[in-house]
Design brief:
Blueprint lengths: L1 H18 L8 H7 L1 H4 L6 E6 L4 E8 L2 E7 L5 H11 L13 H9 L24 H18 L10 H29 L9 E5 L6 H14 L2 E3 L3 H4 L3 H14 L20 E2 L1 H7 L13
Parallel strand pairs: 1-4, 3-6, 4-5
Antiparallel strand pairs: 1-2, 2-3
Bound molecules: 5'-O-[(R)-(carboxyoxy)(hydroxy)phosphoryl]adenosine and zinc ion.
The site of 5'-O-[(R)-(carboxyoxy)(hydroxy)phosphoryl]adenosine has 19 residues, from helix 4 and helix 5.
Length: 297
């Protein structure tokens, strides 16, 4: 990652110097959060859930470069967990999944699976905050896979007969975890008047946001709480150059963070997004009402 960022940075610095153009450094997660505004006129502030292979976070977007971070992953990101489960299940050997990412493979197989066959515990049930955790869930699934491999008398690297059911249980638990944390974030925003009373909106973006089952779970929560939900189309949800360019447009229009071509800029692997409110959210200790997530697969 550092190597590719370095090469990209070197190229763009040479490019702006050659053409004497301003340099606008972009925060990757800010770009994911703002992409939606390229396609819909979503006014600030709005709530945003960003779920990808490298991140999961909930934030209030108050302006182009003004975010309140409500919660983020304490360990791995949901896309990373889905990719690792898919790898452990050897899904690239599945005839329908050979060209798919882990998350896409799990979504496809889950359509024909029974999530009830493998009841999984939703992470962090006892923490009344908006943070996420996916590594314990991954461990739960690995234990199930090891047990089933022993039962079926097969070795790691061979496809299990119950991959569809494991995919369905995995996808449902990830969806439930994301929906619960998002529900709490909505309640926190309502209690603190962080969203407009007129047309409050949840924006969902990042690679995992292209998952239709996860979108449905989130829409059940937003409908219940009176929020609209917007997701950029899949091609703009996953990493893409257009979202970075659009972030540049937004900053250029507002005159924010525009540097001279000769300024030295470095990439930051872990740049924070906005003001960290995770402690305030935890201190509020918001309990969730029970919501049944009945989603047809
Ligand atoms: O946003 P993205 O392209 O790159 C990062 O910034 O990480 O997200 C890639 C991640 C991968 O982990 C991939 O498995 C996941 O998004 N993903 C999905 C789906 N499509 C891509 N996860 C669940 N369901 C999908 N349909
Ligand atoms: Zn990304």
């Amino acid at each position: 990652m550092a190597l590719s960022l370095g090469i990209g940075l070197e190229f763009s610095q040479r490019f702006v110097r050659q053409h004497n153009k301003p340099f606008i450094p972009i925060h990757h997660m800010e770009a994911h959060a703002l992409t939606v505004r390229m396609l819909h006129p979503v006014a600030f502030p709005f709530l945003v859930l960003l779920v990808s292979g490298g991140h999961s976070l909930l934030a209030v977007a108050r302006g182009v470069d003004d975010f309140l971070l409500l919660g983020q992953s304490l360990d791995v990101a949901p896309g990373d967990a889905l990719d690792k489960v898919a790898r452990r299940l050897s899904l690239t050997k599945h005839p329908q999944c050979s060209t798919l990412s882990g998350g896409q493979a799990i979504e496809l197989l889950a359509k024909d699976g029974d999530r009830m066959k493998f009841p999984l515990t939703t992470p962090m049930g006892k923490s009344n905050d908006c943070c996420f955790s996916f590594s314990g869930l991954r461990n739960q699934i690995t234990m199930i896979i090891i047990k089933k491999e022993a039962e079926e008398g097969i070795e790691e690297g061979t496809l299990l007969s119950c991959v569809n059911d494991i995919a369905a249980a995995t996808q449902h638990t990830v969806a439930t975890h994301l929906a619960k944390r998002t529900h709490r974030a909505i309640l926190f925003c309502k209690a603190n008047n962080l969203l407009p009373s007129n047309n409050p909106t949840l924006v969902v973006s990042g690679g995992v946001a292209s998952n239709q089952y996860i979108r449905k779970a989130l829409s059940l929560i937003t409908e219940r709480e009176g929020l609209g939900m917007l997701c950029p189309p899949a091609k703009f949800c996953t990493d893409n150059g257009v979202m970075i360019a659009w972030n540049g447009v937004e900053r250029l229009r507002e005159g924010i963070g525009i540097l001279s071509p000769n300024v030295d800029v470095y990439y930051e692997p872990k740049a924070p997004l906005g003001v960290d409110m995770t402690e305030e959210v935890r201190a509020a200790g918001i309990k969730l009402p029970r919501v049944k997530l009945e989603i047809p697969s």
